[in-house]
């Protein structure tokens, strides 16, 4: 079992292939890996409570994927509430995950 960190800084609504990021997170978890999906910059737009992808992120969280949204990015985009199962995080936690908290980093 490996520990994966998937970081997405792109708006998941904007790119046609962005659904692959969510599928990858779920697929890795289903294979028994520890997975953290970290949303930063425009990636946090998917975490808006009530948004189209919010339910998908909540499903991933219920499946055991840790879903984090960077707090400064969320605040800069006017996001006050995030989807169920999404936790606000910060750059310190992202740095810790990159350095010590995972085996593989995928930055989308």
Description:
The chain has 108 residues and is of the alpha/beta class. Helices cover 35% and strands 23% of the residues. It contains four helices and five strands. The protein has helices at 19-30, 54-62, 71-76, 91-101; strands spanning 3-8, 34-39, 66-70, 86-89, 104-107. A five-stranded parallel β-sheet has the order 4-3-2-1-5. Strand 3, helix 3 and strand 4 (86-89) form a beta-alpha-beta unit. It starts with a strand and ends with a strand. The model has no long low-confidence stretch (mean pLDDT 94).
Question: Which secondary structure elements does this structure contain, and how are they paired or packed?
Answer:
Layout: E1 3-8, H1 19-30, E2 34-39, H2 54-62, E3 66-70, H3 71-76, E4 86-89, H4 91-101, E5 104-107
Parallel strand pairs: 1-2, 1-5, 2-3, 3-4
């Amino acid at each position: 079992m490996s520990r994966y960190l998937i970081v997405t800084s792109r708006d998941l609504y904007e790119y046609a292939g962005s659904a692959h990021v969510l599928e990858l997170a779920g697929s890795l978890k289903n294979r028994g890996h520890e997975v953290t999906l970290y949303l930063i910059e425009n990636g946090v737009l998917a975490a808006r409570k009530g948004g189209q992808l919010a339910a998908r992120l909540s499903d991933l969280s219920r499946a055991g994927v840790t879903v984090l949204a960077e707090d400064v990015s969320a605040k800069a985009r006017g996001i006050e509430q995030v989807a169920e199962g999404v936790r606000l995080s910060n750059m310190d936690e992202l740095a810790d995950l990159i350095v010590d908290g995972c085996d593989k980093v995928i930055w989308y």
